[in-house]
Specification:
This protein is of the alpha/beta class. The protein folds into two domains: 120 residues, Rossmann fold; 191 residues, NAD(P)-binding Rossmann-like Domain (Rossmann fold, 3-Layer(aba) Sandwich), CATH 3.40.50.720. 35% of the residues lie in helices and 15% in strands. Strand 6, helix 6 and strand 7 form a beta-alpha-beta unit. The two termini are 21 Å apart. 39% of the residues are buried. Bound molecules: nicotinamide-adenine-dinucleotide. Nicotinamide-adenine-dinucleotide (NAD) binds next to helix 4 and helix 6. Belongs to the D-isomer specific 2-hydroxyacid dehydrogenase family. One of its GO terms (molecular function) is D-lactate dehydrogenase (NAD+) activity. This is 2-hydroxyacid dehydrogenase.
Length: 328
């Protein structure tokens, strides 16, 4: 079975080639992202493997179908970048990796919280320059802080468990109730209550039409003054212009992002020798209380091994005409 990868990076080759030794598919790695200009590059390959910023909109899906594609395997959990209706109409199956290592993203969420709070990124630079002054580095104890989890699925629950270890009080808002929440000491609240009571608010819901810009001018105004807002979910959960206004007036005291709504033009590439044209992103970088990473929360070797294995199993199920359980 021929499989064409889009947006492939050296680490994709490493992990997929290792895992594929047990499966024997023919893997073709393209560096370009999938969009309307690159979809025709798929030839003789019934399977395409996509990542978070590949764009499988209706027009792209139609081209893929014309090129003989029958299966899209996403090497990620989110599937907001695929037009599922168009795929169904074109007879293309879509599968994903619903769970690989929720620990990878949850632990990165903590890395952002801790770095923003204790300003380790700034301290690192100061100490390197022989500046041992502490002014501007003061943090707060996480113990006793109220943390709100917007979305209490796999990643939200692991994040909650870690934060429980710090002695945080945990609140969650989710459209579905999980019976494990009580054992984890998590109190379910409404969205307005979550916004109103959280000292730290962390986003772990998927990007859907309902959650797009769930953090906006109105919801930001309901938060505690000086709130710490963390997003390791999807960029478009936050209205970036609105959050910039809230940073300027102090409503948001700390912002930690691993995702950004216009990230597809920026992330995963070395742009250090270019002039970045995204003024909104560049404005975010000017705030001392904003910490951004380039969609790396998933990026642990454990997660990459898990992603490669589940993706190969998904393809194997398709080859055998069986359900993988990971269809979307
Ligand atoms: N930064 C990264 O590297 C990275 C990696 C993996 C996943 N993610 C993102 O994290 C998200 C969560 O992943 P997960 O594995 O925990 O998914 P999950 O499906 O296990 O959990 C998502 C939770 O969100 C809830 N939810 C859905 N709609 C909601 C709404 N309108 N309001 C509140 N809650 C809602 C669901 O009920 C579910 O409990 C993914 O959808 C993906 O976008 C990011």
């Amino acid at each position: 079975m021929n499989v064409t990868f889009f947006s492939s990076k050296p680490y994709d080759l490493t992990f997929f080639q290792q895992t594929n030794a047990d499966f024997g598919f023919q893997l073709r790695f393209l560096k370009v992202p999938l969009d309307e200009t690159t979809a025709e590059l798929v030839t003789g390959s019934p399977v395409v493997c996509l990542f978070v910023n590949d764009q499988a909109n209706a027009a792209v899906i139609r081209t893929l179908a014309r090129q003989g594609v029958r299966l899209i395997v996403l090497r990620c959990a989110g599937f907001n970048n695929v037009d599922l209706d168009a795929a169904r109409q074109a007879g293309i199956q879509v599968m994903r990796v619903p769970a690989y290592s929720p620990h990878s993203v949850a632990e990165h969420t903590l890395a952002l919280i801790l770095a923003l709070n204790r300003k380790t990124h700034r301290a690192y630079n100061r100490v390197k320059e022989g500046n041992f002054a502490l002014e501007g580095l003061m943090g707060f104890d996480l113990f006793g802080q109220t943390v709100g989890l917007l979305g209490l699925g796999k990643i939200g629950k692991v994040t909650a468990r870690i934060l429980g270890g710090f002695g945080c009080q945990l609140l969650a808002y989710d459209v579905v109730r999980d019976e494990e929440a009580e054992q984890l000491g998590i109190e379910y609240v409404s969205l307005p209550e979550l916004l109103n009571r959280s000292d730290i608010l962390t986003l772990h819901c998927p990007l859907t039409p309902e959650t797009r810009h769930i953090i906006n001018k109105d919801t930001l105004a309901r938060m505690k003054k000086g709130v710490m807002l963390i997003n390791t979910g999807r960029g478009a959960l936050i209205d970036t212009q609105a959050v910039i206004e809230s940073l300027k007036n102090g409503q948001v005291g700390y912002l930690g992002l691993d995702v950004y709504e216009e990230e597809s033009h920026l992330f995963f590439e070395d742009l250090s020798n270019t002039i970045i044209q995204d003024d909104t992103f560049m404005r975010l970088l000017t705030f001392p209380n904003v910490l951004i990473t380039g969609h790396q929360a998933f990026f642990t070797r454990n997660a990459l091994q898990g992603i490669a294995r589940t993706t190969c199993r998904n393809i194997q199920a398709f080859v055998e005409g069986k359900a993988s359980g990971n269809e979307v």
